Fold this sequence. Notes:
By secondary structure, this protein is an alpha/beta fold.
Amino acid sequence: xxxxxxxxxxxxxxxxxxxxxxxxxxxxxxxxxxxxxxxxxxxxxxxxxxxxxxxxxxxxxxxxxxxxxxxxxxxxxxxxxxxxxxxxxxxxxxxxxxxxxxxxxxxxxxxxxxxxxxxxxxxxxxxxxxxxxxxxxxxxxxxxxxxxxxxxxxxxxxxxxxxxxxxxxxxxxxxxxxxxxxxxxxxxxxxxxxxxxxxxxxxxxxxxxxxxxxxxxxxxxxxxxxxxxxxxxxxxxxxxxxxxxxxxxxxxx
Length: 253
């Protein structure tokens, strides 16, 4: 079975970098979006919060949309944006639920409790584990910019993630709204995948993201857009437009 990274690499080789954020619990809407955008994406990122909000019905729809993508577009990896982070045995339960029951290919997690607590995720060598480093929200710097031995904390986190990557399955999350920080993280993590939310509604600069975030192979990015695609009048055109904008910028990078 291909790993998360295998699937992602194939998409990058096709010059596909768009990660569509499925930020809704409306299964019919998301099914339509997936069917219209699959030709232009590297991956789908599903935010679990919108489904959890709906209770049991929402969790059923979460499982349905993941299964729908896996059955109809098995070459496209699915990341569950769950931002999990807890002590080890709790993370064992989270990892089992996300990967074994729901069937996701990747997940976002918090680093705050350290490597030991994240072991249930890190050991899943066939999955993609994206660890928060420099997030896209306006208040991100409250902790992430604190200096630790002369470096901002987000850079320390990035270095730890690089050191933890024994199975070659880790990545980091860096917001598109912080391109200079993205550049610093890329220099630390090398060719590790970087998930970049914040393009579109949050106002991230696409050209700056590409110039600062590409790896040594001119790949390495999952550029996430959610509301700008799924709630567009024509989701297919919105995804195609973003895909084409990326291709055009890449010609000059």
